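YM 10:42: MIP13918p sequence, as discussed on the call
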Amino acid sequence: MKCVFLILAALGLSFAGEGSTYDHFRLPTALRPQSYDVRILTQLENPDDFHFNGTVKIQIEVLQNTHNITLHSKDLTIDDTEITLSQIGGEETTENCITSTAVNPTHDFYILNTCKELLAGQFYELSLPFSAKLQDQLAGYYRSSYVNTVANETRWISVTQFEPAAARLAFPCFDEPGYKASFAITLGYHKKYTGLSNMPVNETRPHESIPDYVWTSFEESLPMSTYLVAYSLNDFSHKPSTLPNGTLFRTWARPNAIDQCDYAAELGPKVLKYYEELFGIKFPLPKVDQIAVPDFSAGAMENWGLVTFAESTLLYSPEYSSQEAKQETANIVAHELAHQWFGNLVTMKWWTDLWLNEGFATYVASLCVEDIHPQWRTLQLESMSNLLTIFRKDSLESSHPISRPIEMTSQISESFDEISYQKGSSVIRMMHLFLGEEAFRTGLKSYLEKYTYKNAEQDNLWESLTQAAHKTGSGKCSQDHSRSARTRSVGNL
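YM 10:58: structure's back
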C-alpha cells in the first residue's frame, strides 16, 4: 500500500507535484474550510503502543481558482490511496480527483494536486485518513499519566494542547487562527474511559468491531480556530455545578485529587456570570469543563468549552495550600474564562495581534477577581506588578512591540511573554480609564457583537471604542494613531 509518511518528510523526502513550489510560511488564500468532521480512535491500553488513527472530512469553499489544496500536517502518516475529493452540489461530482501529493516539511504543508482546476464559488469535501503515535512532548494529541494511590498503579490518559500551531500534529487541517470552522468530533476508546471535547456528548454507542470499545460523538461546535479544538480520554472524577442560565459547569481531576477542586468548581460559575454582565453577551456554549492535567506545559489553555489546566494552577487545598496559591488559581481561572469571549468568540486574524487575546484576558481577569474577592485588592496590586514587569522588560534590547510582525511559525511562541500579557493589559487599563466606564463597556460589547465567530485586528477594536466614545459623548475619541503607536513600537506606554 502506498502511503505518504510525513515523518520521513522531515528528512527531506517528498512527492513531486506542481503545488510543491509554494514556499511561503502562511497558507495560500485560495481555499477556506467551512467545517470539519473528525473521527479518531485512540489506543491507551498498551503502554508499548500508544497510538491513534482516524479520518478527517473537511468541507472547503474555493475562493480563488486553484489546481491544488494546501493544508497543515505534521508527524502524521497519511495513506494517499484512501484520500477522496468530492464536489458538493453542482452538476458534476468529482471523486478521487487527486493526481499527486507533496510535502513541505519546513512549513508543515501537505499539498494535494487535483485532476482539474477548482473554481471559485465551488464547494468540496476532502477526506483524509491519518494515524500517528500519541505524542509524549505535551503538544498536539499526547499522553499523560498519574499514579492511582488506591490501586498503586500508573493510569494513562490522553489530552490535547494545540496552541499555537499543534493541531496539525493531531489531524490534517488549516492550522491558522484566521481559518475558523465548525467541528464535529467523534472519539473511539475503551469504555473504561470518559471522553470529553469542546461540546456536550451527542451519543455514545458500542464500537462495531472492537470489543469493549465505544464511539462517542459530540455536538457540532460553533465556528472556531483549530488551536481551540480540544478532546481528552480519562478516568477522572468531576464536580458538577450549573449556572442560573442553565450552562453546565464541571471541574475534573484524578480521583485522588478531586477534593482539591472545590474552590475552582465554586469559582468558575461566578466568573462566567461576571463576564456575561460585563460584556452584555451570554456565554454561547451549553457547557464548560475545566480539567486538571497531570502533565501540562502551560499554566492553562482556554479551549472553548474544555479548559485545560496544569494541576498546580487549578487544584487548591484549604489545609495545605497557601493564600498565594488560592489567588493564583483565581487569577488563572478568570483569565482562561475571559478568553471564552476574547480569543474564542472573537479571535485575532493572525498572531501579530496575540495581545488582543492575552492583554484583554489579563486585564478583565483582574476586574473579575477584584469583584469576587475585593479584600485581595487584585486590580491595584496587578497594575503595580505589571508596570514593574514592563519597565524591566522594555529596558532590554530584546523587547518588542505589543503588536509584533510574525514572519515565521517559530516566532509565534516567542510572543507569549510579558509584553503581550502585562503590557497589553496595561494599555487596555489606560483605555478603560481614559474613555470611562460607559464608553469602554459599550465599545467592548459592540466589538464582540460585530466580530462574533469572526476574526479581528487591533484597528477593529479602536474603531469600536471610538464609535462608543462618540455615542456616549465622552469626547475622547480620536486616539487611533496614539493607540497604534503604543502597540507598534517598543517602550511606549
